[in-house]
Write a structure and sequence with these properties.
Elements (H helix, E strand, L loop, with lengths): L3 E2 L4 E5 L2 H15 L3 E2 L2 E5 L2 H6 L3 H13 L1 E4 L7 H6 L9 H9 L2 E6 L16 E5 L9 E5 L3 E8 L5 E9 L3 E5 L4 H18 L2 E6 L7 H24 L3 E5 H10 L4 E5 L1 H15 L5 E6 L5 E5 L5 H8 L9 H18 L2 H19 L2 E2 L1 H4 L8 E2 L2 H15 L1
Parallel strand pairs: 1-3, 2-4, 2-5, 5-16, 7-14, 12-13, 12-14, 17-18
Antiparallel strand pairs: 6-7, 6-15, 8-11, 9-10, 15-16
Helix pairs in contact: 1-10, 1-14, 3-5, 6-7, 11-12, 12-14
The structure holds NADP nicotinamide-adenine-dinucleotide phosphate and magnesium ion.
Magnesium ion (MG) binds next to helix 9.
């Protein structure tokens, strides 16, 4: 078979530990033999981030803005232990945080569904994609312990110095206080990313807050979404045969559990934090969750939702066999290749991405899988493969499909 040609490079963001090992295996076994792979390579491995004072992370985000599509390997977010392990000059910020801030993007997480790995919720047949607003609210709040009786107020001082006040509470005894905020600009970007991604994936969009209780704060989220929808997206949604649906957060939770899946659920920051863990766990496995960062102006960065699988890497370094699941990382590549194919009009690239995904799913459904899945599958007599052998098994399935 002739290799599929690409036009525009993908922005390739390499990473750390076991996922870095898998990254290379995926390229060698599943991509390079079939695609004349064009990438602009950025090494976000912690060693190179340290060498460049983390400049490489910012450079890679700029490249993502320039080209529009990136694929990222999991990376270490430094903590005290990593400072020592890698002899770091500084405790660098999470690369994902840096890239997300530079792209002003929203993260969409969705599970990969295969027969034999059954969701705990029996009605779920299709993926539920969670979109989490990643700015503000309780994550950027100021807090205070109230020692005893007194009056608490919200005070806003405008540019000319005039104050607006709102009573929070007349404390008769000790208590606690919290002040949080959000920005119209950030909520607007969040809304646009969600509407664009819904159109892109032809899925309904659900959004929920507690606007009946929070009549100014949450209501502003609801109003911004509705306003942008009415002005910019209503027609496009109708044309695509999808709907935008707003409800209260508690009603949304009840509907989600009774649903079949197959939609995007947009959540405020805290709701998204909690619900993404709930949905991921209920679908069965962290190693089967994909993640894509979408900017309001249409840049895409694809990755696996899991981390660098440190424990497996240490085994790998000792020469021990590992059985690490590469599926979410493979789907990061297929997501990026398909998007590149769509943007550049390369049909062959899109259909290759589809086939590689089908090969992954078929390999598992045929009973060959990594240990994490073998432990939870409902298939009888699953064959547990090590990291390398599983990737080779996917390759032979892929060859049979091509
Ligand atoms: P992790 O890498 O997601 O792994 C946690 C555990 O989940 C693993 O030890 C393994 O369980 C299981 N697991 C996750 N992915 C798997 C896979 N593909 N195949 C098989 N099992 C899998 O989280 P972590 O160990 O807490 O974090 C390691 C590093 O990743 C940290 O330095 C963190 O900063 C970084 N991280 C990066 C990202 C990102 O770049 N997006 C996200 C999260 C964390 P068993 O050990 O029981 O087999
Ligand atoms: Mg969480």
């Amino acid at each position: 078979m002739e290799k599929i040609q690409m036009k525009t490079p993908l922005v390739e963001m390499d990473g750390d530990e076991m996922t870095r090992v898998i990254w290379q295996l995926i390229k060698d076994e599943l991509l390079l033999p079939y695609v004349d792979l064009k990438t602009e390579y950025y090494d976000l491995g912690l060693v190179h981030r340290n060498e460049t004072d983390d400049q490489v992370t910012a450079d890679s985000a700029e490249a993502a803005k320039k080209y529009g599509v990136a694929v990222k390997c999991a990376t270490i977010t430094p903590n005290a232990a990593r400072m020592k392990e890698y002899d770091l000059k500084e405790m660098y910020k999470s690369p994902n945080g840096t890239i997300r801030a530079m792209l002003d993007g929203t993260v969409f997480r969705a599970p990969i569904i295969v027969k034999g790995i059954e969701p705990y919720v029996k009605t779920w047949k299709k993926p539920i994609t969670i979109a989490r607003h990643a700015y503000g609210d309780v994550y950027k709040a100021s807090e205070l312990k109230v020692p005893g009786p007194g009056r608490a107020e919200l005070v806003f001082t405008d540019a000319s110095g005039s104050e607006t006040r709102e009573l929070i509470h007349e404390f008769k005894g000790a208590g606690v206080l919290q002040g949080m905020h959000n920005l119209e600009a950030s909520i607007t970007s969040f809304a646009r990313s969600c509407f664009n991604f819904a159109l892109d994936t032809k899925q309904d969009l659900w959004f929920a807050t507690k606007d009946t209780i929070s009549k100014k704060y949450d209501h502003t989220f609801k109003d911004i979404f509705q306003d942008i929808y009415d002005k910019e997206y209503a027609g496009k949604f109708e044309e695509a045969g999808i709907t935008y649906f707003y409800t209260l957060i508690d009603d949304a939770v009840a509907r989600v559990v009774r649903s079949e899946g197959g939609y995007i659920w947009a959540c405020k920051n805290y709701d998204g934090d909690v619900m993404s863990d709930m949905v991921a766990t209920a679908f069965g496995s962290l190693s089967m969750m994909t993640s894509v960062l979408v900017s309001p102006d249409g840049c895409y960065e694809y990755e696996a939702a899991h981390g660098t699988v440190q424990r497996h890497y240490y085994k790998h370094l000792k020469g021990e066999e590992t059985s690490t699941n590469p599926i979410a990382t493979i789907f990061a590549w297929t997501g990026a290749l398909r998007k590149r194919g769509e943007l550049d009009g390369i049909e062959g690239l899109c259909s290759f991405a589809d086939k590689l995904e089908r090969a992954c799913i078929k390999t598992i459904e045929d009973g060959r899988m990594t240990k994490d899945l073998a432990l939870i599958t409902t298939l009888e007599n699953p064959q547990t493969l090590n990291t390398q052998d599983f990737i080779k098994a996917v390759r032979s399935t892929l060859d049979s499909l091509l």
